[in-house]
Amino acid sequence: MGDGGSSQAVPSAPTRVGPDVDVATVVAGLREHGYVVVERFLDDERVAAIRDALAPVLATTPEGRNDFEGFATKRIYALFAKTRAFDDLAIHPLVLGVVDAILEHHQLSAPTGIEIGPGSPAQPLHRDDQIYPLPDPHREFVVNTMWALEDFTAENGATLLVPGSHGGQPRPDEPPIPAEMPAGSVMFYLGSLWHGGGANTTGAPRLGVILEYAWAYLRAQENHLLAVPREVAAALPPRLQELLGYGICPPFVGYVDGRHPRRVLQG
Ligand SMILES: O=C(O)CCC(=O)C(=O)O
């Protein structure tokens, strides 16, 4: 009897997992498919608390200025200046474990609330790593998380993505699929995955928050040092401070007057 080793199919990593998933399973799914949805990571109570915290912020947030932002879409920039609702999630062990595994040294790049308004058309498909003009193929240097603050459906603008389109490929021909997920889910996706916000054909907005991480040797999309007031940053957990720019990348990228930036923050 042969050992059958060469003919055995390698089991595919899942793209949908439950909230008790481990880091290795998410990383395997990301490497194979470019995205993984962790369903119901947050319970209903937490989702409601986040929505309550964001409601007054959204009330004063203008709609977008171009096709990419979406003329009927509101974007909450400077998120960590405006709410404490994501402090623990940005440094959750599952999130950091996954981002550590793919990026090693990283920082928050573009933490943004995204409320796609009724009637909004689909956002152009794009890759989050495209803003950095580096030739393909390259190592993954962006990992994003999309936190669903209500059920994401094909109708209300669930993020559209092309499974397996990561790794430095040109824009794929096949149509994207909607990443439908129940409220409280978080979707991890690689910066090289082709995706975009979906069209919202319903009468209600679709609210999600992206916490995007980028390789720490790159410039973060948002300048957190100016976006988040220093006294706010000083009260944050140390790991979150680092992710918001008060950290160094080995050996010493990001120093301030020869010292670790956290020492400057602490005065
Ligand atoms: O809102 C979404 O579902 C995705 C938005 C997005 O990809 C972006 O703005 O870069």
TrEMBL record:
Pfam families: PhyH. InterPro entries: Phytyl_CoA_dOase-like. PANTHER family: ECTOINE DIOXYGENASE (PTHR20883:SF48), PHYTANOYL-COA DIOXYGENASE DOMAIN CONTAINING 1 (PTHR20883). This is Phytanoyl-CoA dioxygenase family protein. One of its GO terms (molecular function) is 2-oxoglutarate-dependent dioxygenase activity. It comes from the Bacteria. The keyword Oxidoreductase applies. Keywords: Dioxygenase, Oxidoreductase. The keyword Glycosyltransferase does not apply. It comes from Actinomarinicola tropica.
